[in-house]
Design brief:
- 12% of the residues lie in helices and 30% in strands.
- The protein has a single domain, classed as Roll (3-methyladenine DNA Glycosylase, Chain A), CATH 3.10.300.
- Strands 1, 2, 3, 4, 5, 6, 7 and 8 form an 8-stranded antiparallel β-sheet that branches.
- The structure holds a DNA duplex (13 and 13 nucleotides).
Length: 186
Amino acid sequence: MVAKNLLGKLLTRKFEGKTLIGRIVETEAYLGEDDPASHSFAGQTSRNQVLFGPPGRAYVYFIYGMHYCLNVSCQPAGQAGGVLFRALEPVSGLAEMARLRRLPPGASPRLLTSGPGKLCQALAITRAEHNGINLTNPDSDLHIADDGFRPTRIAATPRIGISKAARLPLRFLVAGSAFVSTTMRP
DNA sequence: GGAGCGATGTCCT
DNA sequence: GGACATCGCTCCG
């Protein structure tokens, strides 16, 4: 379960000489061609080809005309499957994140990255810049780091914001975190 | 605190 | 033409 293992790891973004860091507190798994809710359900297309590529790559897509969402591919080349980053706990570079989110300085950290669209805005993640990059390479502008932290309690809940197969318990979050994407916490 | 809704680009049928 | 893995604003309590 890659989605579960990603919880507690750090997402590091180098941007204009600054380093922005968030700890992953919420993820959602998409299974691939057998999952009706997955972008890869209808087979490989130019949009989702990253999901069919090698694992550890960023799949960034644009949704609802105004938001980006960040996924990481997690199956061998030839198989689809990915994990959506739904929420981060801001760790470093909060002032810069607030600026990118166009929030006043000193806005609540909970507003910065508590949702898939928000975290992309806070880390200046775009499809043009980041789709297809290797998230496991520490030299990437955007990559996943591990500082050894492991959340003590992990909860699984139904997936959010989708209409098909939403009831499968494929959403994972750090239990008790104040930074997950909804007020409905177990 | 929560329900309702509009904004808006890209891709697929 | 319509669906869409969302957000933030408006209303209402």
